[in-house]
Amino acid sequence: MAQEFITIYGAKVHNLKNISLKIPKNKLVVITGLSGSGKSSLAFDTIFAEGQRRYVESLSAYARQFLGVMQKPDVDEITGISPAISIDQKSVTRNPRSTVGTITEIYDYLRLLFARAGIPYCPTCNVEIKRQTISQIADELSKLKGEFMIFGPLIRGKKGEHRGVLKEAQERGFTKVRLDTEVLAIEEALDRVIDAKKTHTIEIMVDRMNGDEEIDRVRLVDSVEMALRMGKGTVIVNQKKGDTIFSENFACPKCGFSMAEIQPRTFSFNSPYGACSACSGLGTEMDADQDLIIPNKNLSVAEGAIRPWMSASHRVGRQGYFWYVLKARSARGKVWRAQY
Q1: Among 79-88, 154-163, 311-320, which is the least confidently predicted range?
Q2: If exposure means fewest CB atoms within 10 Å of the residue's CB, which of 73, 85, 145, 176 is most exposed?
Q3: CB-based contacts of 106, cutoff 8 Å, min separation 6
């Protein structure tokens, strides 16, 4: 049977003097008292410290090496406590990218939870996204029309010069690479000055094919397999309309929608890999209201139809500059007909 209480025996952290108590679970518990009576010492430095220590111990050895060693609080024994997280009070900020979740840092834990325990579903078919085999990816590529390029992603959104990665690819016989968004010869990429303080994306071009011609199935499968090996399970296919990501890890069995491996940054609106492409993660979009810009659609441009450009006299005001630019360009093109 699950324990109904968190029991603390002999807490001696800071100004706590050998305190023992029971806290009921599944209840909202408030700790009150005078300043210096030990409220924070009990809540954060004792109960939360022990819960956080157990939370860290529940992680993998790889994750623990980044968090350091958590010291056990000065208490004889604590029973009934589960791995815990803390939401601390913070000052209010007016940053448009800040929310209650980011200010209290609970959002970091939610991103980790969704990335590690979440099950991805296709946004179109609403079915679980599963792995794609090499044969399935090759089948999808054989249906493409026009020219397309197959890339194996090596670096995605990481800071550094990455010259070692480029040289290794060159030694393996590859000749072209896509650095950020530009396709270059590897020699040209190595000669460039790459800013180590900025994030970069490096993808090796494995093959270039034309869907309008007959495609060698063996060559296609070999290219996909090579790109998947270099991209650690991910292959990127580029056409004129843009990139399509195929993955051995996640793909919709119905419509073929695929995505890269889910990571915590996938759920971050402050990261370009998780932010909405329309609003850049702000949650709102700025747009112009045509009715406010042109309130009277019966007027010509010379008569002041574009309201932000004109003042009452058409000649003065902060926006007068745009009026004179428009007038000069119209006269230059010999299309100025208005009487001013």
Answers
A1: 311-320
A2: 145
A3: 85, 87
Residue 314 has pLDDT above 70, yes or no: no
**Same domain as 236, residue 141:** yes
Q: Going by DSSP bridges, is the β-strand pair 75-79/182-185 parallel, antiparallel, or unpaired?
A: unpaired
Tell me, what's the pLDDT at 20? 92
Given phi > 0 = left and psi -120 to 50 = alpha, else beta, which region is 241?
alpha
The region of weakest confidence among 97-111, 127-141, 232-246 is: 97-111
Question: Is 96 a domain residue?
Answer: no
Rounded CA separation 213/210 (Å): 6
* Overall pTM > 0.70: no
Q: Are residues 164 and 241 in the same domain?
A: yes
What's the domain range around 204? Answer: 134-261
Q: What is the CATH number of the domain that holds 205?
A: 3.30.190.20
Structural domain includes residue 250: yes
